[in-house]
Amino acid sequence: MNWKNLIISLTLAGSLIFTMSSCTSKPVSSDVSEKTIEVEENMSKNLKIENELSDEIHIDQLGYKTLAKKIAVIKGQYKKFQVINSKTGVAVLTGDLTGNLKDESSGDTVCYADFSKITVPGKYFMSISGLGKSYDFLIDDSVYTKINDAMQKALYYQRCGMALTTEYAGEYSHADCHKALSKLYSDETKKIDVSGGWHDAGDYGKYVVPASVTAAGLLLAYEFYPQAFTDATRIPESGNGIPDILDEAKYGIQWILKMQDSESGGVYHKVTSRGFPEITTMPDKDVDDQLVMPISTTATADFAAVTAMASRIYMTIDPAFAQNCLQASKKAWEWLENNKNFVEFKNPSDVATGEYGDSSGKDEKAWAAAELFRATGNEKYNKYFVDNYQVEGFGLGWQNVSGFAAIAYLFSDVSGTDQEKVDEIKKSWLAKADMFTSTGQKDGYLVAMHKMEYNWGSNMNVATHAMHLLIADRLKVDEKYTQTAEECIHYLLGRNTLNQSYITGFGSKQVTKPHHRPSAADFALKPVPGLLVGGPNSALEDDVAKSKLSGKSPAECYIDDVNSFSTNEVATYWNSSAIFILGYLNSNK
After folding, report:
1. Catalytic residue among 174, 178, 465, 515
2. What would be the CATH architecture of the domain defined by 145-179+198-585?
3. 40 counts as catalytic
4. Residue 27: pLDDT over 60
5. Domain 3-139 belongs to what topology?
């Protein structure tokens, strides 16, 4: 029999079979699922379909949209790959592995499998002869829908001051918590109501600085990608005709409003107990006194910024709330005008909870000015911004908010905006986006991260770099920006040296022991889903990391251990930056 001329008739049920002899072969068009295709013997005669999982085939463990670029990263050097339909066991694509790159952040030598030609929805896995197979992954345009909803709902699970009922929280329910009046640290005879808001991270503290960034991230995600967010994530407000992302942001902002001193307009920095409760303490069992810490410049300026932002976005949705926000924002700005010297916050000697300290309030005040100008059109805010804003790395985290300030000014449509300032910021923003794309192209795992950026909360760096790139694409449409941003989400969902999905409840290799008190203390078998953990931290800043990760490369310095707070804690503002990326992925682009 002449195998060279053998024609195999294959009828596909919901799957499209491709064959190719090299990475440059043209794909069979997507309308041939009922056609006969010819397979030559030399395509796959020496390739077997592997059945043993390999931890060295790195893919996005959720999957890919149908028309997306799809690349797997393989540790080591191999020649061929196959993509297998998980349901039928049939190879739908055979291709060459390309590249021979040494990744600086992990120390891995890697090659690549490009399977972008597969566009038919389904469940697949990758097989590499002599190595093994990957986890299953989906190809489907709705592949990121559930995780988008889950990462929003994770903020509901972080809510303080209310009971999480079984109707909405299921096995993660608990009674209401932290409802008692809190004492002013400066005078414990005075008590105020600062209930509500979000537990910031794995602890039960509530901090104005990161909460403002969390709320801002949610509002930006909605503002840029409104079509990606629904009113059906199963929170108490679902079904009220308002996208749940705005309901969640409002819950956080309502608490922020309570943190403003009614007389001066200044904003208290945080409310926490003196120390962290035991890791196995449920929220409703944490009954230590809650102390309201003194006013700070950074808290007041961040407050002014996010409430001004909210006043604009909620103006037609909830006018009364919007007006309250604007009045509070203006009052906070008055405090800033009356207290021009930087008022720094430092933890008192008897307080050991999160500090969220800063050495400057310049970027926070610039953000407040930009948002107030955008909300009001008042020239005094514009003048302050133009005179004082400096490009400081375009930070989108809690310590450096200069990126939020830039976004507010760049996208303002208020008359009087200084075009020269806009052009200056835009040029610098795009230059940094170009740097991120270059970094991603050089990185073995295609992520826009330098090896020095694997510090505490490195996954926030990944997510905020993607945010920066997506904003850049709004300023100057360029596929390299959106593609590099998408590579960031692939990294977070498993395409990394550890084959680790960093979002609880999602992926094949999931985080099981986050540093998160409710997850450690409840009786649920799995942690609260939808939480982004901090990720690799080469500084090894807890005892577990020091004992278990010493000598590892920067990208490997992560451990799924409840006591590794420096690599495995969660934070609401990490979630909000990832939600922004998922908003893009789930929008009708």
Report:
1. 515
2. Alpha/alpha barrel (1.50)
3. no
4. no
5. Immunoglobulin-like (2.60.40)
